[in-house]
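REQUEST ID: PR-0412
SUBMITTED BY: lab tech R.K.
PRIORITY: routine
TASK: structure prediction, single protein chain
INPUT:
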Amino acid sequence: MAWLVVNEEGQSPRIVEIATAPFRIGRRAGNDLVLNDYGASREHSRIEQDGPHWCLVDLGAANGTHLNGQRLEPNALARLEPGDEIRIGHATLHFFEKRPATAMIEALEEAEEADATRVLPAGRAPSFARSPDFVRSATEIALPKRVEYFTVLHELAKLLLAARSLRDIGETALDLLFRVVPVERGAIVLTGTGDGGLTSLVQRMRKGSDPVTISQTISNWVLRERVAIITSDARHDPRFQRGESIHLFHIRSAMCVPLWSETDTQGLIYLDNLFDAHAFTEEELELVTAVANQVAIGIRQIRQAEQIRDEAIIRANLSRYHSPDVVEMILRHSREGRSMDIEVTEEVVTVLFADISGFTSISERLTPAEIAALLNQFFDRTTRAIFAFKGSVNKYIGDAIMAIFGAPIPTGNHPELAVRAALGMQEEVAAVQPTLPADRRFRIRIGVNTGRVVAGNIGSTQRMEFTVLGDAVNVAQRLESICEPGKVYVGEETYLKTRDLFQFRDLGELSLKGKQQQIRVYEVVP
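STATUS: complete
OUTPUT:
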């Protein structure tokens, strides 16, 4: 023998005995259970026995049959367990192998003496006087009216403003709840990412020090349905028959409320009493729900503040090496949870090297502090020009700077961008010369080359950095070493990609250190 508790819109809950198998459910008259719901098909589903087990079968209904939130495959057996929820259209059915307590089907106004938790659709929860057993949507609960509860909420709001960590928020909330609610054990847990489950934030017990074990049956229900729940005697609640922790820890009264913040559930507040049935009232659930709402807002604010702070640090570090648009792309990938791992691959990029001409003789006349100030001014001006044309500073090497265009973020016109950056660097350096003492004035030389390189994260397990390796890099450095002060030299590939955009002077084939064959070199004419 089995039973269904049936909830249909506009009707009181009723209990239906499954007297025969198969037990047919649908909108057509003649079914064993007739649903007055146009979301149900004429022949919607049936319940049948498979040996000692009860099973549910969807008969190919247009709107489907949902078991515990999952849509069933048509004509496939789905095993039923006590407390399972079946949804057909707008109707909700709960399956039990034992006849549920009478309180499950009493008129809602007479729920004062109920022994089991009521199941009510969240959208049409009635206004209760003092029902100790019900499920209600977290967004449907009004603020408590008792003055001391308002005092608690007011005090909580002030304390949350001063909270500096998630733990501060959790401890503040439990402190206040233990002050006014007859709870023996309490915990606040947070949801993790993916399938990470629940993570304990804070726990508290009036007596003892054993860790609080939250009923997974109750917590799963609350998180899945996004409802606040209160039960006067969890051990006899038919929906929680399979809850091992409920029986193991002799849980009597319990409240569980989601930490709901705008569009997501941050976690939940769980409170129970191991000794007294009917320990909690509707007003106390309303208080806990109001506290949960404030805690959820506080958690969201703390997490947002931490994210903003962390992002500001990351942005500041990235901005030293990448242009603003590259930094923004990296941060956007991070916010979206997309990996920024950079594998070592072959790419065509443009590499730029620049250094201060005659730096050795200049440094002989300056103190170490003056040398540092001069280099900082040089790097600040040249880096600004590199970033302006979407380049990335790969490294500073003594008085030299190396930049990459086209990686790690691809740009199709990286040869053009590199040449424009080189001309901009010369303009920046020229502009600062009149402000310097005569013995500190300098000029720079720049080499630019385009070619295939190996690009990616390279280094040890302790420290890695993004860089590029290959002959194209070596040629760029050699072009810089032979370049005349105040000039920009480019290799042949860069010239071929940009000859329609800039004026060049062909310097012919020149010998570069370490190269057996001569390289044709071009000077960019400003």
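NOTES: The chain has a mean pLDDT of 82.
REVIEWED BY: pending
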